[in-house]
Write a structure and sequence with these properties.
This protein is α+β, with helices and mostly antiparallel strands. Helix content is 23%, strand content 15%. A hairpin with a 2-residue loop joins strand 3 and strand 4. The termini are far apart.
């Protein structure tokens, strides 16, 4: 793919920024959006230009660091994070406009990087947002095997815990009776300890 990229460049928080245009050839549709920016930065480095600053941490769709405005939409045309957006979402010859996430609370630090400290303070105080993450159910709505295990242990149902877990954790096996007639069968004794 061949792309024209219009990218916001700003030297620092106090500098006046502007859009800069870059041409990029041989972009694979299987690249993620951030990989495409990596390729552009490699080209800029080879040409002796300063690379574009952008946030990218996990690149697994978890951290939320790679928040960008792509063609006027948060994270681009797909309902996903920027790092999970792939270039197959764009057409050959397309012009893509990339800007930082703009808000008074998130001033631009450099290029596409914004100061997220206001957001980080909200999270540290226990704030959260609710986001539809797709097919994966919300973890808080699912029963916890750990919680079930504690309940089973508390009520003496070790055999149910054993079946539920497909075995027992090593730390628990040392607390069980070591008898042939035990429902869990014979359990090896702790190393260095007589049966």
């Amino acid at each position: 793919m061949k792309l024209t990229l219009k990218i916001w460049r700003q030297a620092n928080q106090d500098a006046k920024g502007a859009m800069h245009t870059y041409e990029l050839d041989e972009v694979s549709e299987d690249m993620s959006f951030l990989e495409m920016l990596d390729v552009l930065n490699e080209k800029l480095n080879a040409d002796g230009e300063e690379p574009i600053a952008f946030d990218s941490d996990c690149r697994e769709g978890i951290c939320g660091m790679c928040s960008l405005m792509i063609n006027g939409e948060a994270h681009g045309p797909e309902v996903t994070t920027t790092c999970q957006l792939h270039m197959r979402s764009f057409n050959d010859g397309e012009t893509i406009t990339i800007e930082p996430w703009r808000a008074q609370a998130f001033p631009v630090i450099k290029d596409l990087v914004v100061d997220r400290s206001a957001f980080d303070r909200i999270i540290q105080m226990g704030g959260f947002i609710s986001v539809n993450t797709g097919a994966a159910p919300d973890a808080a709505t699912m029963p916890s095997a750990q919680g079930q295990g504690r309940s089973l242990l508390r009520h003496g149902h070790l055999h149910r815990l054993w079946r539920m877990c497909g075995g027992l954790p090593e730390w628990l096996s040392f607390t069980l009776p070591r008898r042939q007639d035990h429902p869990l069968g014979r359990i090896a004794p702790r190393p260095g300890r007589a049966q």
